Amino acid sequence: MNGFTRRTEQKKQAIKQTVLELLRTSDPRGMTIQMIAKQANVSPVTIYNYFGSKEHLVRETLIDYMIRQVEEYEAFLKEDRSFAEKVKYIIFQKKKVLGEIQVDLIHRLIKEDDEFRHSVDVLYETRVLPLVIEMIREAQEKGEIAPYLSIDTLLLYLNLWRDVSEKIPVSLYSERLIDELLLLFFYGVKGETR
Length: 194
Prior knowledge:
This protein is mostly helical. Helix content is 75%, strand content 0%. It folds into 2 domains: 1-52, Orthogonal Bundle (Arc Repressor Mutant, subunit A), CATH 1.10.10.60; 59-187, Tetracycline Repressor, domain 2, CATH 1.10.357. The protein has helices at 3-23, 33-40, 44-51, 54-77, 83-100, 103-112, 114-141, 151-165, 175-187.
């Protein structure tokens, strides 16, 4: 990579980092290219040249963010850890993500932006789903979860828990809540039976 290309990439990453910081507190509909340019210390023309529009910049920023999150999950989940540790990590990462970005924004963009929805679907189908299936199979092989439950049933169960966890306000997340959710996840309301 030559010096010009490297500087261009560094500038693009700085602009996307600025957008991520703004998205923590602002709705993208209220952001302007001028606001982003000022905070990123670049000209508005630079942003238009690199990204074409504010919508494309926001979309690309969020997709890059999601890819980085998946890469962190992949690295952790490929380590030799128990299924319980992996589930706990996923819950803690959710808390971290909720502190970094407005999840409602991602849900809204999935509904409103066909290109963003397609990118999220591809990321899910090609990286996230295979990772979760591998995690389930490994846990079944180790005897950590019932081997007679189908992958489809376990995926449904995990998705139900994901949907419920998205409704929990970030202010309620604590070590105790996460531990109790893990107990419910593995043993239900009756408690540990082993």
